[in-house]
Amino acid sequence: MIATGKSNSLRDFVRLTFEVLGLDWQKYVQTESGLLRPNDISKTIGDPDRAKAELGCQVCWDLPMVIEAMVRQNLTKTNP
Questions:
Q1: Which of 4, 26, 52, 62 is most buried, by CB atoms within 10 Å?
Q2: How far from the centroid of its chain's Cα atoms is residue 15's Cα?
Q3: Looking at the whole model, is its pTM more than 0.85?
Q4: Torsion angles phi and psi, residue 74, rounded to 5
Q5: What whole-number distance in Å separates Cα of residue 5 and Cα of residue 48?
């Protein structure tokens, strides 16, 4: 995945990963606002237009699809 033109947070990534596993992420992950760093980038969005123009690549997977494939692959490798 190069870029989709959409923004996803770390919270989105964690939530979606736990969803694929059938788990409630809030039962396993603790957050603490005091650990947040004020200078961290809060939002980034990658523009897929250049990859499409120069490489002929077009976005066909969104974040949930990538996460599901990663989790399934990992589960297959650890539980053949």
A1: 4
A2: 9
A3: no
A4: -65, -45
A5: 6
- Please report whether residue 38 resides in a domain: no
The tokens describing 57, both together, are: 């690549």
Domain count, the chain: 1
pLDDT tens digits, residue range 18-47? Answer: 999 999 999 999 988 888 888 888 778 888
Phi and psi dihedrals of 77, rounded to 5?
-70, -35
Three-state DSSP class for 61?
A: coil
Residue-wise pLDDT for 12-21, tens only, equals: 999 999 999 9
Host domain of residue 52 = 1-29+45-80
Given a contact cutoff of 8 angstroms between Cβ atoms, the answer to whether 59 and 48 are in contact is yes
Retrieve residue 36's tokens.
Answer: 């947040």
Neighbours of 48 (CB within 10 A): 18
* Within-domain flag for 69: yes
Confirm whether 36 is domain-assigned. Answer: no
